[in-house]
Amino acid sequence: MHPEKMEVKKGNHCAYQIHYHIVFPVKYRKALLRKEVVEEIVKITVEIQQRYQIEMEQIGYDQDHIHMLCGAHPKYAPGQLVRLFKSITAKELFRRIKGLRSELWGGEFWSNGYYVATVGERGDWSVVEKYVKGQGKEKQKLIQLKLF
Predict the structure, then answer these.
(1) Terminus of the chain with fewer CB atoms < 10 Å: N or C?
(2) Could you give the CA distance from residue 142 to residue 106 in angstroms, rounded to a whole number?
(3) Each residue's pLDDT tens digit, 126-137
(4) Domain of 92?
């Protein structure tokens, strides 16, 4: 694990070291994570980090799903992190990229499902980080996670 990832964070009444690997797909698994969309997601993610006690450590993506490695204050349950990220990014993507909403039915950008796992202090952070970084790259020899 990288030294900066091993750092214990401090809250008002707690000390913590929590890291999540979160994966969720675009609605209908549509291949909408093109360059323009991903660039906006990165900008929105910076805004989310500034507002909430969430540290986005790595983002990886393929055309139809996204992987995130993030650290968060324990007041946020993993499901809350997913809902927060999905709702803010979807709303902002539709606002910032004209015509994106018309590529989907029903006005939702993200699918309802997600995958989440913790990455422990004794786990091999570099393996998970390499996997997330490698999303969407050709000739990848890593196993794709299955959401369902």
Answers:
(1) C
(2) 34
(3) 777 787 888 876
(4) 14-133
